Amino acid sequence: MPHLNGHAIHPCNLTHQNSFSLEGRLALITGGGTGIGLEIARCMTDAGANVIITGRREEVLKAAVDSLGEAAHYVVNDIGDLASIEDMVAQIEAEHGPLDIVVNNAGINLKKPALQVTDEEFHNILHTNLNSVFALTRACARRMVARQSGVILMISSMAAYYGIDRVVAYAASKSAVEGMVKVLASEFSGANVRVNAIAPGFIETEMSRTAMNNDPDRRDRAMRRTPMGKFGQPQDIGHAAVFLASDAARYITGASLPVDGGNSIGF
Hints:
By secondary structure, this protein is of the alpha/beta class. It has nine helices and nine strands. It has a single domain (14-203, 234-259), classed as Rossmann fold. The chain has helices spanning 11-19, 35-46, 58-68, 85-96, 119-147, 168-188, 206-213, 216-224, 234-245, and strands at residues 3-4, 7-8, 26-30, 50-55, 72-76, 101-104, 150-155, 193-200, 256-259. The strands form two sheets. It has a seven-stranded parallel beta sheet with strand order 5-4-3-6-7-8-9, with helices on both faces.
């Protein structure tokens, strides 16, 4: 066994850092210009990955890439435009090389009593949060399966774990994503393509702060059932994404990881 300064080094420790590294990997992160998506991108670049972030607002993406450094690039894309997805993935791989990781982070929400939600509103949420997620996953997975290597990450929600009032369309979309993770993991595992989800609890972003401040009762209920007694930070999701994308999680697939301060098991 190797020694350092007279102390034995366990063989596992020799590869510990490398197992969590994303050095040489290329990641695509949707909705990567702000909030959780930006922190996932930041954590992945810190772990050695090159990242491509997508979104609709070029000025936001450009500012994000400037803050991330040379390892980051952006592509302007509306993930809801399903017809554009195949060409976007082909363009990214032609310009930057094969994708190793895809993070389906982009999504929209609607807080409204269920009886007031229109068919159009329900459809719009499912289109962005489910249909586009599947379309992008399919385009990337087709290439990953052919290469016999890849990681696909979905961003789920506590709304898929228990009933949260006034988010029926959002909860339906995230519950469907959770089911999709299991099916795709079952189908793709033989090709060495792993599929997992991260289920954020109540994470403190500019958007969530505004929403919670406008609904103090919901904010207080969320805090009461979170055993750690605080809201999470976007980098908490970023660190979980790095772990699940890394070789340290090489035997994990079909899982949904709550990053929630215990909210999903709180009372």
